[in-house]
Design brief:
mainly alpha; 6 helices; about 130 residues; single chain; two-stranded antiparallel ribbon; globular
């Protein structure tokens, strides 16, 4: 990427964060905007908090896709070793993506469910390894 592109990207990210902050200050939080800010957040803990916030907003926005946020949140949880929570989210996301015929998201979630992305733990009981039937 060229230096000019990086400057433009940084400027766009700053504008996005300012938009998000302004929306929050005016009580107009939007799950899509929050998800987008999350996507550009380097800190896993900050991104996780933002994705969870975006998911919490979704019930007030009928038709807003939840599965994309679940997949992104799960990826960040995997980064910090929270595989059990991530696996639960990914299983839900696969089902939601199938219902919406979003094959790209189904593939992305399934890829994250495969080792080495996620170890084979059972989300209902982390002490039990999956037998491949979940």
């Amino acid at each position: 990427m060229e230096a000019g592109d990086l400057g433009a990207e940084d400027a766009a990210e700053k504008q996005l964060r300012l938009l998000h902050q302004g929306m929050l200050e005016n009580g107009l939080a939007d799950p899509f905007v929050v998800e987008t800010v999350s996507d550009f957040t380097e800190s896993p803990s900050e991104a996780i908090s933002l994705y969870k916030s975006a998911l919490a907003l979704c019930p007030s926005f009928p038709g807003e896709p939840v599965h994309t946020k679940q997949i992104s949140l799960a990826a960040r949880l995997i980064e910090i070793g929270e595989e059990v929570e991530a696996k639960g989210l990914l299983v839900e996301a696969v089902q939601a993506a199938k219902e919406l015929d979003d094959q790209d998201s189904v593939a992305e979630a399934k890829q994250l469910l495969e080792p080495p992305s996620i170890s084979q733990v059972n989300p209902r009981n982390p002490m039990i390894l999956n037998d491949g039937k979940d």
